[in-house]
């Protein structure tokens, strides 16, 4: 299980608290939706869960232990809205995937077609690039995936296609997913349950 236990976080000592004792649990293979207004702290929570930000108080555990990836990839991978920011434009798709250190044998070819491998990011569409971005996160065999607005800039057909492929992969591999979006109908379609995050009232620390 991926668990946040009493997590507090603020970006600096002189900044307000964004997370104030948050608790959250995701079972292996579960898809949990996280909804809420802009600025409510959804992305911040996602980044804390994926180990990109360290909580000021509280902890994040995977199966009861705080992940301490040194050479191994983090068991919680984070994928964001804009794949063009995540993938170096000077690398081909193959190079971007290989940079994870994982064998390309494990590539999910439903997500990434072979004939995209030797193209550069600008030579595939935005939806295709997001599929590469997801495949890259899945290539390192995470236990959990935080999908933060991954389909927000895509048309409805592409959005549905991406979620279908992603959920299929995660179901087969038993990967738990935190789907973050401001789009509640989308979350109700893809997730088994949906949590609402309200903005933090002025929190004392
Ligand atoms: N790098 C940062 N440095 C300082 N403050 C930040 C940083 N990132 C986010 N914040 C602040 O933290 C608060 C929560 O932001 P966050 O991005 O987590 O919310 P969100 O619910 O994901 O919003 P949105 O739906 O607009 O993406 C906001 O007040 C935001 O301004």
Strand order in the sheet with the most strands: 5-6-7-3-8
As for the CATH topology, it is Rossmann fold
Q: What is the class in the CATH system? A: Alpha Beta
CATH architecture: 3-Layer(aba) Sandwich
Which cofactors or ions or other ligands sit in this model? adenosine-5'-triphosphate
Count the E strands. 8
> What structural category do the secondary elements indicate?
alpha/beta
Low-confidence stretches: none
> β content, as a range?
15-25%
CATH superfamily membership:
P-loop containing nucleotide triphosphate hydrolases
- The shape is globular
Distance between the termini: 28 Å
Number of helices: 6
Q: What Rg, in angstroms, do the CA atoms define?
A: 17 Å
Described by strand count, sense and barrel closure, the largest sheet is: 5 strands, parallel
**Total number of distinct structural domains:** 1
Helix content: 25-40%
Mean pLDDT over the residues: 93
The ordered string of helix (H) and strand (E) elements is EEEHEEHHHEHEHE
Describe the structure.
This protein is α/β, with parallel strands linked by helices. The protein has a single domain, classed as P-loop containing nucleotide triphosphate hydrolases (Rossmann fold, 3-Layer(aba) Sandwich), CATH 3.40.50.300. The protein is 28% helix and 22% strand. It is built from six helices and eight strands; from the N terminus they run βββαββαααβαβαβ. It has a five-stranded parallel beta sheet, with helices on both faces. Helix 5 links the parallel strand 6 and strand 7. Helix 4 packs parallel to helix 5. The chain is globular. The mean pLDDT is 93. The structure holds adenosine-5'-triphosphate. The site of adenosine-5'-triphosphate has 11 residues, from helix 1.
